[in-house]
UniProtKB/TrEMBL annotation:
Gene3D superfamilies: 3.40.50.1360. It catalyses: 6-phospho-D-glucono-1,5-lactone + H2O = 6-phospho-D-gluconate + H(+). Pathway: Carbohydrate degradation; pentose phosphate pathway; D-ribulose 5-phosphate from D-glucose 6-phosphate (oxidative stage): step 2/3. This is 6-phosphogluconolactonase. One of its GO terms (biological process) is pentose-phosphate shunt. It holds the Pfam family Glucosamine_iso. The keyword Hydrolase applies. It comes from the Bacteria. GO terms for molecular function: 6-phosphogluconolactonase activity. Residues 11-240 form the Glucosamine/galactosamine-6-phosphate isomerase domain. It is an enzyme of class 3 (hydrolase). InterPro entries: 6-phosphogluconolactonase_DevB (IPR005900), 6PGL (IPR039104), Glc/Gal-6P_isomerase (IPR006148), NagB/RpiA_transferase-like (IPR037171).
Length: 260
């Protein structure tokens, strides 16, 4: 488990631009040292803001998009192309404008796909896709993600791990179906905390005053069942990327030294 590090930016626009710059560097470095990079995307306002900032950054051309694997931390279980699906929003924000290898874009199944309306079967299929990508040499059920990003909801949810729902208590499976989520749509697919914790780096993104209470709670010792964001950390690094509004309720003892 890595101790959370906090970076606080002036506002959400600057946060998105700085996080996009950070992600470009990570991908380029991973491609230089290992040949390819593996990134887990998040949905939500901050995840999409980062992708839009990346699309607008001239340095995006430093990435070899054909040597990048993209995965998702969660998906809203809706028909293919639905505007509320996380993958649809990511395509609009960035993916449609860069030359990705379609075989390396690992979207979670849709509710009108091969598993029909069965979110649990769709989750199992995604878990199998992760196992295949991990390969036997990794001795892991998931590939070695370089960066796994998570938006933090105002209720402290990350991916589709909501407080007190069964998915946040999962200790064995890497992907599960979610039923009865408090945020629409109620049916979702999500990586579990064990899968999230297998990533080299976990980045949690939160901007806006509606996130301030969730950020303070998750970083002040709350349990992961009550505050799922508290249970999200990476093997080498856990980075909280915040704007000043989202950091406003943090105790001074947690505030990074150089922040206003
Ligand atoms: O529904 C979801 O919400 C969270 C947080 O979204 P935000 O708009 O409050 O930032 C997101 O991270 C997750 O991927 C998504 O499915």
């Amino acid at each position: 488990m890595s101790t959370p590090q906090l970076v606080v930016h002036r506002d959400k626009e600057l946060m998105a631009q700085a996080a996009a710059a950070r992600l470009i560097t990570k991908i380029v470095d991973a491609q230089a040292s290992r040949g390819s990079a593996s990134v887990v995307l998040t949905g939500g306002r901050n995840g999409n803001g980062l992708l839009a900032a990346l699309a607008a950054a001239p340095a995006r051309d430093a990435v070899d998009w054909s040597r990048l694997d993209l995965w998702w931390g969660d998906e809203r279980f809706l028909p293919e192309g639905d505007p509320d699906r996380n993958v649809t929003q990511a395509r609009e924000a960035l993916l449609d404008s860069v030359p990705l290898d379609p075989k390396r874009v690992h979207a979670m199944p849709a509710s009108d796909g091969p598993y029909g309306n069965d979110a649990d079967a769709a989750a199992e299929a995604y878990a199998e896709e992760l196992v295949r990508a991990a390969g036997p040499e990794n001795h892991s059920a998931v590939p070695a993600f370089d960066v796994l990003m998570l938006g933090v909801g105002p209720d402290t949810h990350v991916a589709s791990l909501f407080p007190e729902l069964p998915a946040v208590r999962e200790t064995e499976r890497t992907v599960v179906g979610v039923h009865g989520a408090p945020k629409p749509p109620p049916t979702r697919i999500t990586l579990t905390l064990p899968a999230i914790r297998s990533a080299r780096e976990v980045w949690l993104l939160a901007a806006g005053e509606d996130k301030a209470n969730a950020v303070a709670m998750a970083l002040s010792g709350a349990g992961e069942v009550q505050a799922p964001a508290a249970g999200a950390y990476g093997r080498s690094r856990t980075l909280w990327l915040l704007d000043a509004a989202a950091a406003a309720q943090l105790p001074r003892s947690l505030y990074p030294p150089a922040s206003p």
